[in-house]
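Obj.: predict assembly geometry.
Materials: sequence records (below).
Method: joint structure prediction, all chains together.
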Amino acid sequence: MLSESARMSSAAEARFRIDAPNSKPRHVKVIALDSTSEAVVKHLAERRWNNASFFTASAFASAPPGRGFSIQGWLSDLAGRTTDLIDEVNSADLVVMVATAGENAQAATLIGEACSVKRVNTTGLILGGVHATDQMLSKTLAHLRPWSLMLVIATREDYIEDMLTALRA
Amino acid sequence: MLRKEQNDLLTQTGPGTPCGSFFRSYWLPALLAEELPENDCPPVRVKLLSERLLAFRDSGGRLGLIDEFCAHRGVSLWFGRNEENGLRCPYHGWKYDVTGQCIDVPSEPEESGFCRKIRLKSYPLIERGGILWTYMGPAQEAPPLPEWEFALVPDQHRFVSKRLQESNWLQALEGGIDSSHVSFLHRGDLNSDPLFKGAKGNQYNLADSRPVFEVVESAGGLYIGARRNAEDDHYYWRITQWVMPSFTMIPPRGNHSVHGHFWIPIDDENCWTWSFDYHPIRSLTEAELAAMRDGKGIHVKCAPGTFRSVANKDNDYLIDRAAQKAGQRYSGVEGFGMQDASIQESMGPIVDRSKENLVSTDNGIIMARHRLLRAIKALVDKGERPPGLDLAHQRVRSAAVVLPRHHAFKDAAREALMARPGIAPASV
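Observations (raw structure tokens):
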């Protein structure tokens, strides 16, 4: 007589797996941290997604250094409308921060802190990291690492699309 | 999740399939060298990439991997007589050499040259590092012979085993690069297994049970880094290598040997799990070898005369619910290898990835699929050689290192991640 494991792991038994949805939609917020990443995220936003929304924090990155910067007004959707970070984090299941190696990724601190307070998972994605110098990459890593529970350094922009699809975004 | 057509593409490796062509680009482990121990020894059935083959070593020591069945009436040549530089079918005496060329058809006049018109499909078979490797792609595109470090060290530095895994190859590979499962499925074994215990790195593991993962593309595949807090603004990094198509190398611990796997499709519902241990600069000790033969570390104890684990799905993997409840074994199954296999086989022969719900920590798996799909498409559409063929992609090591916090591990540990003959592995 076949064991439980032998019987139940057969291809024949796979036919009896329940074919019903096993998850609810997850809300994924994708935030570009610099202008180079913003172009990538804009392109990505043109595709059809279940529950992904796209933002840019490039205004933060391009602010003149040394000047005070308001907590309001630096996060916007891709149409340029200002949006509130806390509101966005409150309604997120996952926040993906997209940065370019060597660019200013300091906005990750504010986003990461908000996610940490609200217990929202974060993923950092660094583009161009494979071809960047050690110094450039270290600079971006220094900003992202403390606030990313998962960090990916990808060679190609199309990885984000595959990642979001895999996550059912 | 993957769409059905993507899942099919990655899991079907038979002749003529895109992923089959991808695997046929590489030298693949086919048998342990000890399976053909001497000239004219019994032939061995081999099924690889959904093709039934037969391996034999002829009277002159030449190795052959040929179609299993006689061209005459389809008899399995496993019953053949391995003698006088060829394998003779016991049914009507047709004889084949290691290239599959028929060299004798007793019923036909020798002068007719009939036997020269008969040739079985064959693949090259070479011995390296205790393994017989085959290349099943077009002869004119054969890559250079494999140069994985474990296969090039002296024999006394290395131990290799293989076991049958009753699932598609991709389930097994994905387990190998899914570093986040270690804290659960293998919990409890780090400090007891003789091939892992005693390393300082284990203390970092225990002190910080929430590692953070970084996935970085490498030329041949991926680096998967798991970082934990260490002293004085440093991180303890464990960096796993994945090189295409299915080679992984697990970070070492202390002065223990380094280990890793290959997962090679037998057919779409079974694969070989190859497991190797080696040390670049020293022989393995008798105690280490005994432990490996006894199924410790990443190896398993197989039923005598087979490559099937003693614990297998026919006996419910000898699951011990009392040990599970007592916390001695997280899943109740003993040993790293069968803990992995039991879980992966339970998914069914080919898991339906359209139903899964991946999370952020699965980025290693997501990236591996992304790269595999990319490589297969480039091979099929443009004839581009896939990553992992360049010998530089094979000269790699895993590493366990302590690095300053802000450093990119792929740069800070660059040398540690390369095979360096005569240099000890970077290990903590």
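Conclusions so far: Chain A touches chain B through 43 residues (CB under 8 Å).
To do: check interface contacts against the pulldown list.
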